[in-house]
What we know:
By secondary structure, the protein is of the alpha/beta class. It folds into two domains: 179 residues, Rossmann fold; 86 residues, no CATH class. 41% of the residues lie in helices and 11% in strands. The chain is built from ten helices and eight strands. Strands 5-4-1-6-7-8 form a six-stranded parallel sheet. A two-stranded antiparallel sheet has the order 2-3. Helix 7 links the parallel strand 4 and strand 5.
Amino acid sequence: MLFFYKNTNLLSKALKNTLKYSGLILFDIDGVIRSVENSYRLSLKKTVYKFSGWEPSYIDIDNAKNEGIWNNDWDLSLELIKRYIKKENLKLQIPSREAIVKCFEEFYFGGDPNNNSNYWSGFILNEELLVNKEFFDKLQSNGIIWGFVSGAESASAKFVLEKRLGLKSPPLISMGDAPDKPDPKGFINLSKKLLGNTLGPSNIPIAYVGDTIADINTVMNARKEIPSQKFISIGLAPPHLHLKSRLKERNSYESNLRIAGADLILNSINDLENINLAVF
Length: 280
């Protein structure tokens, strides 16, 4: 079932007269709206270590993400455990996915994700915001409609968008609302919700901003489903690669995003404030 929050002001204006808008930008959340190096990725590292005795590096995680199929960190945790056990020929029992999820959530939330976030004590509290509310206000004033398509759990996504950024009921597809990326269903469905049910040459350009090859492939797959609609893929290297000491790794990561089909690579998410999607 499609999960969708109505932003009354944004949606009513968009649906009444999309002609005055120049484009739609949908955002991934992790690595784009917030840094997850010390939250999701740290939870992944600690989960893998608990079941295997080996802690993957951030480079190990980046390399796996570059395979383009590991959008879900629970599944990637399990995959890395399996690979390590096989590589080292260890006589360890491979954990169930349920055990992975439970362990991961304990590290990440540090409490029941369905309870009040005031009681959380996990790595989610480490997350650094990469934008502020004014960023989205400026996008809208420049004729851009916006929303979010993320593989993050609903509780996590709403925590960062609503509680920390202060966005009021933002348009959102989160984990469980649609198949995992790179399946484009969530991306396409939210686009239809925001622009009307018909996508095609008469509609405004639709962009997706993400930090992984799975995000780029989501746009590539959307093009295959609706070739008459202008879809734009925008890539951004995750925050931990923007350190000067990681320039070589960042260049390699961005090169992989381009090879996958990214139309534009951003230096910063704030580069989008004055973007003109019509030039693509």
